[in-house]
Amino acid sequence: MEPTRTCVGCRRRDSRSALFRAVSQNGLLVPDDQKSLLGRGVWFHFQCAELAISRNGFTKALGSVVITEFEAWHRQARNDAGNTMSTSK
């Protein structure tokens, strides 16, 4: 049975493979694409990242973290996913 984690955005539990992970490194929120970085991490559904930001879910879970670069990563990944979907039609 696969481990479950709680999304910091929607607060629903889901399998680890269905969630993304980010960690706090030197006060910055860093995406952990391989789910292998050391340090305290948080789990989230990709579509819940903005909800987690607006609800301060990352900050509540990790303490004081700077999310600016994480927001840029999420925006770029969302745009890349949209471009992939529009070119595959």
TrEMBL record:
It comes from the Bacteria. InterPro entries: YlxR (IPR037465), YlxR-like_sf (IPR035931), YlxR_dom (IPR007393). The lineage of its organism: Bacteria, Bacillati, Actinomycetota, Actinomycetes, Micrococcales. Residues 5-66 form the YlxR domain. This is YlxR family protein. It comes from Aquiluna borgnonia.
